[in-house]
């Protein structure tokens, strides 16, 4: 069993280096610019886990010619044909994985669909390397009990394994069976038939994952440092200089069991002040208030200049608002870790 | 009457240059990094329109020492004292404007509050230059009829002018009366007593402003170019490679009269396909579907590889996801305009 983290969460080669040191094999990326970036940092085994389209094939080819063992994915005969045609025209054997739909969440071919074998044959007979199948049970984010998470993890596993078995039964190669999302990776009771697990946001965790039940607030590694810049005393508001530009507009906890607004307020050392949330956000202004009710002592409690930390709803979205991380080492020193921005 | 655009929308010196060429005098910024960036591009007259805190005064001082006619703002006696103390300690006369609350939206002192005169006296008697008053009726975004917009514009004007009159009646200087938001700037029936108007998002417009009623979809200058990467035929979905990383998580039209999901789908030339929206978004995947109902012909209508443009809910938020703009000139040529990222 190997583990291939999704580096779209951090977009940081420093974070990826720690993940590799901890045993990760290869990475998953969400854009070809990420593939270039992580390949330039010495990572060869890269899965680009967004469906390939013809216009991106020259970029994928260039990466392979530079020595990157890039894997691309497809879930349609149209794309599979385009990949095989382009590969043969350029004497390149692309490694292609077929994307499986295990929960109706987004993309992929359902394991029982005829298209699975059609795509498999098109790639294999078209001279490409049919490397395996992958799925992502994105709907696992909608659950919040161990039983439900275990059930969706099993659904994800079974769908992907069944797809692999069907391909193999049809005489097609399917060495890799790759599954994963942070909630299912942390909840699966069985990984029978699976060769690889993927997960992304586990690397930082966030309030959405806290609500799903796979981490505590103490596990959340990412926070936004902010300063109190003013008050509306009658309303019980402190105004901070972290608005949606800093936190992102992600309101992923809105429909979960605890709505954290735009983030959980902590003291500067990172200890949650559990009744205080960022309850509103403009571009560079956040409104800090009690979750419910009016704090009549807001001005004394959080004077102008007070520094606070805000835990994010969604680490991937909040991280993307910043050009770099200020990484705190165990010895208290701080390092600047750059983050990839754009496409 | 002068116009001072808020460059937080574009964060682009190329866009600001066009605004200046069209008559703008000075700019408004939302961070001190923006102030540095636009000052380095040759703009001297800069209003930093987020409440000043002590920790940022050295950065403000450095900008003034470099020749930037930086204006800073405050809405509290605590900050006013800190500014005056720091200014005197460094032999610097900061130009400070007092932020007025004209609609209960966010920050500011209400014109009738005693704090207005206290802050004014603190700055003036403390040796700073009391440059004026400013307000931003951010709640104007909540209205969508000409009558309501005109009313909130008048409320914004009256509050700011009244604050100026009170300061002047108390023997304090108040040369500038600065108001503005895109909806009010475009709706005001009277600007009596006002010396300066500010607005930001008007420079691109977006679907939120379309719903407010101050622009048409044709006026929207910003779009995200995307490609169809797959389908879920039974559901009537096309999957595109613009997810929330490209569109931002801003759902500003959710509570407006037309909910545009994550954006209005247009053909590659930018003509809206009005029944089609981005109805769901993951990090790099967008779900394109009919606003209502299932399009049985989705695969034929938008084959893999089809290029489309998506109009954003909120131009400030969508722009921030990109390192640069691809600006289309009247002659059809495309220029790369970089955008400032981070703080």
From TrEMBL, chains A, B:
Domain of life: Bacteria
Keyword hit for Lyase: yes
UniProt GO molecular function: D-serine ammonia-lyase activity
GO biological process: D-serine catabolic process
Domain D-serine dehydratase-like, chain residue ranges per copy: 221-329
Swiss-Prot/TrEMBL keywords: Lyase
Keyword flag Protein biosynthesis: no
Membership in a protein family: Belongs to the DSD1 family.
Protein's name according to its UniProt entry: D-threo-3-hydroxyaspartate dehydratase
Organism: Herbaspirillum frisingense
Lineage of the species this protein comes from: Bacteria, Pseudomonadati, Pseudomonadota, Betaproteobacteria, Burkholderiales
